[in-house]
Amino acid sequence: MNTKVKEKSQIKVITGNAAAAIAAKLVRPDVVAAYPITPQTEIIEQISKFHANGEMDCELITVEGENSAMNAVMAASLAGGRVFTATSSWGLAFMYDAVLATAGARAPVVMVNVNRETPGIIAVSSGQQDMISTRDAGWIFLIAENCQEVMDLVLQAYRLAEDYDIQVPVMVHYDGFYLSYLSEVVDVPFQEDVDRFLSVLKDQPERIKLVPGGKLGCGSHGILKGYLELRHKHLSAMERAKAKIDQIDKEFQEIFNRSYSGQIEEYRMDDADVVLVGSGSMCGTIKTVIDEKRQAGVKVGLVKIRMYRPFPGEAMVGALKGKKAIGVVDRSLCFGFKGGPMYTELKAFETQLDGSKMISFIDGIANTDITKANVGQMIDSTCDLAAGKDVREVTWVSYPEAQEDGGL
Amino acid sequence: MIEKKKGKMTKVMDYLKHEDPFSKGVAFCPGCGLELLIRFIPQVLGNDIVITGTPSCSAPVLLGQNSQSWHKLSYFGTLMTGAAANATGLARYYRKAGIENTVVCFNGDGTAADIGFGNLSGAAERNEPFIYICYDNEGYMNTGIQKSGTTPFGATTTTTPFGSASKGKNLRRMNLALKMAMHKIPYAATATLSDLEDLAKKLLKAKEAKKRGFAFIHVFAPCPTGWGVAPENTIEVCRRAVKTNYFPLWEAENGKIKMTRTVRKPKPVSTYTKIIKKFNHLNEADLQILQDDVDYEYCILGGLSVLEAECQLPVSAED
């Protein structure tokens, strides 16, 4: 057995769910609400174990449903507590009213959502449709690529949510069935380093808290200008969150020696002509394929969306401006539009991209793996687009039938 | 607020130790049972309670309007679906932070018996350390008088209108208080506005019981506007509800059910229904159905109240 050596970190091989649970322990929350749902369950099991073993000194509320999970942590947060909960797909849908209320109340809740499909075809399978269906709830959305980033993003999420200038709830997303159950090497931070990283929050002014005898109401009824003022302030806080996550990532690097460069991560972008835009676990595969394509002389790069709400429009334009062709990979649908949601949103910035052409790829839904071959196909199509060839606007990579008879 | 009883003042004033935190004029209807109740609670329990509540008749006053407040209490305005979970979050955080607190989750029957029953039941099962008070006006009054789970047989509402094919509500009411008592919580009780001393005692017992976990009080609070009752008759309706056993007063401490007021010779339920317009269309046979329901519920309650069974929980809220 190794004797405990005081180092910067401790290396473990753990799942994404375990990483989320350990991160939740490391932030020392006051209140945690727990309710099981596949593929999130392992998180709350681990937290329950930490709690039972006395490793986690929090109020653990084993609620009777996700709606209560969100309502409980929202209230605890408004009372002044640091809170955590986790859910997935139908659970996120079941707590949706409280998700909206939490955002409107500007309660700095941090929640992990392990992405999973939600259509009526009961798909216990991968996809980001749960995230997409709640994207305009007023939460900050962060997306992790691997188990290490799950750990690190949960830690960063608290700095962002509880920052006095932000005070907006944060949802950390990662791909269910891929990262949730996948064991990877994770550098688990030491408690004192996490304490130091979060201690910045203690130096900030105290946020308004609902306390007994405080004669303070929250959830007040508001209409007309009073309401518009609060909504506008919410939107402004979301805008501030963009620079804030970049700053937090820098400070994170100083303590933990890992960096993700904030809102978006650029991979081999300096001289890239052709770019894939993606999010979550697919980015690991994309990076591998890019390395291979680079060896074959293809100048391809990746822009990984880490912050999805607020949409990092300026950062995306900065990274993508002047590139010959961009292929956006979506793990969900956007009804009324042929392309995926991220593609559709990036399209809004098209006029600022100096003529970059764009196409949409839909893949990775319902456990259809985004394989290296699939990514290779996406890169090839995007290269064809760059070369001026006639390329379909939207391609369902794992469902070629979608392209039959003219497709969409 | 002071009720005359046999020509003498009741002792209810002795329980009003704290100021009325509400504005003198508020946006409730004349004769509103809810107003009397919500003014009464902080005068007994103190102005440092934290109230949570939902969209309902209580909302315009409790939530305030356009960020303007009608009262001086700490208040959390929330959603009907999760009111008990909100109260749970508050009470648990205060406990963790060592902040002394009395959280009062104050909801109508729509929240308590219908849309929010799941989380009310969940909070009771976990024995969460707060007080849940349901003001029961037998329907969704704020949205314009619709049927709820506690609307009694025969009552007309806008979703159970009287017609050639309908008696009004054609179903029986649920017994929310008994259901809550069956959660084996430290304290469950019924109360109403015609016996404020009884209500005050029960509030204080709930506050004491809260130290051991969940406390629930079901308060019968008529709605003159929605029921078709003269505003000055609100208290009389409460009194008759008790005297007919339509709404018996009881409590359950540690699961031991005890009548707090026994009616020696209960009056027929028609003496209660005749001063309420929502029952006006019922004929004798219809009234008998309502009477049978009242008798059945009272029989169950009577049976339970003679049992010696007690259920003291060894620990406070689940942790």
How are the SSEs ordered, and which strands pair?
The complex is a heterodimer of chains A (408) and B (319).
Chain A: E1 9-15, H1 16-26, E2 31-33, H2 41-52, E3 59-61, H3 66-79, E4 83-87, H4 89-94, H5 96-104, E5 110-115, H6 129-132, E6 140-143, H7 147-161, E7 170-175, E8 183-189, H8 191-199, E9 217-218, H9 224-256, E10 264-267, E11 274-278, H10 282-295, E12 300-305, E13 307-309, H11 313-320, E14 325-330, H12 341-347, E15 357-362, H13 372-386, E16 394-396
Parallel strand pairs in A: 2-3, 2-4, 4-5, 5-7, 6-7, 11-12, 11-14, 14-15, 15-16
Antiparallel strand pairs in A: 1-8, 6-13, 10-12
Helix pairs in contact in A: 1-2, 1-7, 3-5, 10-13
Chain B: E1 4-5, E2 8-9, H1 12-15, H2 33-45, E3 50-53, H3 59-62, E4 74-77, H4 83-97, E5 103-108, H5 109-115, H6 117-125, E6 131-136, E7 162-163, E8 166-167, H7 176-181, E9 187-192, H8 196-209, E10 215-220, H9 224-227, H10 234-243, E11 249-253, E12 256-261, H11 270-273, H12 284-305
Parallel strand pairs in B: 3-4, 3-5, 5-6, 6-10, 9-10
Antiparallel strand pairs in B: 1-2, 7-8, 9-11, 11-12
Helix pairs in contact in B: 2-8, 4-6
Can you walk through the features of this model?
The complex is a heterodimer of chains A (408) and B (319). Chain A folds into 2 domains: 9-256, Thiamin diphosphate (ThDP)-binding fold, Pyr/PP domains (Rossmann fold); 264-406, Rossmann fold (3-Layer(aba) Sandwich), CATH 3.40.50. Chain A is 38% helix and 19% strand. Chain A has helices at residues 16-26, 41-52, 66-79, 89-94, 96-104, 129-132, 147-161, 191-199, 224-256, 282-295, 313-320, 341-347, 372-386, and strands spanning 9-15, 31-33, 59-61, 83-87, 110-115, 140-143, 170-175, 183-189, 217-218, 264-267, 274-278, 300-305, 307-309, 325-330, 357-362, 394-396. A 7-stranded mixed sheet of chain A has the order 3-2-4-5-7-6-13, sandwiched between helices. A 6-stranded mixed sheet of chain A has the order 10-12-11-14-15-16, sandwiched between helices. In chain A, strands 1-8 form a two-stranded antiparallel ribbon. Chain A is globular, with a radius of gyration of 21 Å. Chain B is an alpha/beta fold. Chain B has one domain (27-305): Thiamin diphosphate (ThDP)-binding fold, Pyr/PP domains (Rossmann fold), CATH 3.40.50.970. Helix content of chain B is 35%, strand content 16%. Chain B has helices at residues 12-15, 33-45, 59-62, 83-97, 109-115, 117-125, 176-181, 196-209, 224-227, 234-243, 270-273, 284-305; strands at 4-5, 8-9, 50-53, 74-77, 103-108, 131-136, 162-163, 166-167, 187-192, 215-220, 249-253, 256-261. Chain B has an 8-stranded mixed sheet, with helices on both faces. Chain B has a two-stranded antiparallel sheet with strand order 1-2. In chain B, strands 7-8 form a two-stranded antiparallel ribbon. In chain B, helix 4 (83-97) packs parallel to helix 6 (117-125). The model of chain B has no long low-confidence stretch (mean pLDDT 93). The chains are: A alpha/beta (408), B alpha/beta (319). Strand 9 (217-218) of chain A pairs parallel with strand 4 (74-77) of chain B, so a sheet runs across the interface.
